[in-house]
Amino acid sequence: MSSQAVPIRDMVRAFHDGNAIESSRLQRSMKLAPLSEGRSNDLPALLHRFGNQNFSFGTLSFRELREIFRSIKPGPNDLFCDAGAGYGHAVFYGASVADCRFRAVEILPQRCNAMRKTAKRLGLDVEIVQGDALAQSYADVSYLFVNSPFFPDAAKRFADGLKARTRPLTVIAIHNIVDAFRDDPDFVETEVGADLPNYCFGVFNWNKRGTRRRV
User: Fold this and answer.
1) Are 45 and 74 spatial neighbours (Cβ–Cβ below 8 Å)?
2) pTM, full prediction
């Protein structure tokens, strides 16, 4: 662990607890993403093969991530997975403030390499999987975070694919994938009190036995 890792994590926790720390300061300290993302040499081939996926990079603000992690409160036996993780903003913020396991799934190699460097620099134990988020198994996942990784046709297939699991699941859906879960009667939307707009945020529970899981 680098000598700066603990102070940076302490800063994130202080922000999470409500201390007056600017998000821009956290961004500069954590260095999660490059100032500008260059075009990947892999992108044309990926677009040809996975044309139903959204490869553009976008993330939530630290204020929004704080709202989410204050709402869901994952525990030591839980696994939080970000499907289409980008540079890992959600998992690295979460790993700094929550006592659970974290996994990031990302298809672009350069983003995975950047996340591995970030995990080492911050001293955070985050599993990083390079691969197609649509093709992964989420059987062991407790909390699944999805921030617009697919276009609408693939989003519906993704939601349908989750129904094969037997364990309860909480899905945190962001932006254009929210409708795929909101329109699916097998996922129960749960009010968690997060200060985020309803049109681009929703938390949904899946339980094969038909009983509702509390968040």
Assistant:
1) no
2) 0.85
